[in-house]
Design goal:
9-stranded mixed β-sheet; alpha+beta; 12 helices; FAD/NAD(P)-binding domain
Length: about 400
């Protein structure tokens, strides 16, 4: 295949496909390559994960034409409650009535379905999946990828959106700061007796955060939430081997009657937790987006949202450069993208890492100090506003596509 497009996006997941759609809205054509089978990614039960979509990220989805498709499947987050092991001194983040929600919860499956349907209908997106990339080339005048089926795709700029273990990043030799938390996130969908009232709960235990994220009610009116339970790696196998009854008992113990009786509505899945931050997110005719550039702890649910801010910034930089007649792979454009994203990704990555370590300190004294600090935040409107703006993704210099 000799058709040359502006972008060669390696990785067609949530970030990579959003990038292709956002670029298409600006008249920029893409090849999107993914090794995974789209049918498997959107199958019932493939992935029980859910994502908190911030206000800014929702603006991006609306601006690429996905709002009507996604709206019925999103559960608004009206408030966020943060507590140290359900002890007194919690923080409640609740916006004013005229400010809307703090975000929306979606199952990853619904996000994929919406993105993939839109991609199939977009002539500026050539989607190649499932297929393996056998070779990548970046030269003075363009980039290319040779696929396992023998085709070669050509473009002006290569974009790595393959996730944390990005082979494109590794091949480019871009160094990363990385460490393992020795913890595992256990994911499950739960039904519960009492309504969640659209409140997202972040309950910090010394062993790790225990998050309850509001989801839409089930088909028979069941109240539902997504559970993200962080456990030490050494305990993960035992927790995963528990019977459903035993697992629910452990969950109810940590919820302390918050939502009444609980039942599972999905299989349990898990993934290891680690930190990584790439100091350089560009190279010759190459840009990194999403987890290929920065992988963070899910403690604040910001990983996908930070990746979507990468998308908005990169598309804006490229569109403005191309209007001036610059090549999408121009080094000046890539440097502008890197500079724009540097502070935001660094700040969020290390803030989530710091929270993880702060709430992981054991002992009554540490808990008392944390709760004293949380009570101070609860009584300080300026600080609460700051944290809510961060959660909504509405702070700092926002790309046009994320402004609404």
């Amino acid at each position: 295949m000799n058709e040359k497009r502006e972008l060669l996006i390696l990785g067609g997941g949530l970030v990579g496909m959003t990038l292709a759609l956002a670029a298409a809205k600006k008249g920029i054509a893409s090849h999107v390559v993914d090794r995974a089978d789209p049918a498997e990614l959107t199958a019932e039960g493939f992935d029980g994960r859910a994502s908190a979509i911030s206000t800014a990220s929702w603006n991006l989805f609306a601006n690429v034409g996905l709002a009507d498709r996604l709206e019925p499947h999103g559960c608004p987050i009206a408030s966020i409650a943060v507590t140290d092991a359900m002890r007194p001194g919690r923080i409640d983040f609740t916006p004013e009535p005229d400010e809307g929600s703090l975000g929306r919860m979606f199952s990853n499956r619904e996000l994929r379905l919406a993105l993939f349907e839109a991609a199939r209908q977009e002539p500026l997106i050539a989607w190649h999946a499932p297929v393996e990339v056998m070779a990548r080339e970046r030269g003075e005048h363009g980039v290319s990828a040779t696929l396992k089926d023998g085709r070669t795709l050509h473009a002006s700029l290569m974009i790595a959106a393959e996730g944390r273990r990005s082979p494109t990043r590794e091949e480019a030799g871009l160094p990363i700061a990385h460490w393992d938390y020795s913890h595992r996130a256990i994911i499950a969908g739960i039904d519960h007796e009492k309504p969640h009232d659209n409140v997202a709960w972040e309950i910090f235990y010394p062993a790790g955060p225990f998050a309850l994220l509001p989801m839409n009610d089930g088909p028979d009116g069941q109240h539902r939430s997504a559970l993200v339970w962080t456990v030490a790696e050494k305990d993960a196998e035992g927790v995963l081997k528990l019977s459903d009854r035993g697992f629910v008992a452990e969950v109810e113990q940590r919820m302390q009657g918050l939502f009444g009786t609980v039942a599972l509505n999905s299989p349990r899945t898990s993934y290891p937790l680690s930190f990584q931050h790439t100091a350089r997110i560009v190279a010759d005719r190459l840009a990194l987006v999403g987890d290929a550039a920065h992988g963070m702890h899910p403690i604040a649910g910001q990983g996908l949202n930070v990746g979507l801010r990468d998308v908005g910034a990169l598309v804006e930089v490229l569109a403005e450069g191309m209007r001036l007649g610059l090549d999408p792979g121009d080094a000046q454009l890539l440097k502008r993208y890197e500079n724009w994203r540097a502070l935001d990704t660094f700040t969020v990555s290390f803030a989530t890492d710091g929270l993880t370590r702060l709430f992981g300190v054991k002992g009554r004294t540490a808990s008392a100090i944390r709760r004293f600090g949380m009570a101070g935040v609860q009584r300080t409107p300026f600080l609460k506003r700051f944290f809510m703006d961060e959660a909504r993704g509405m702070s700092g210099k926002l790309p046009e596509l994320l402004r609404g």
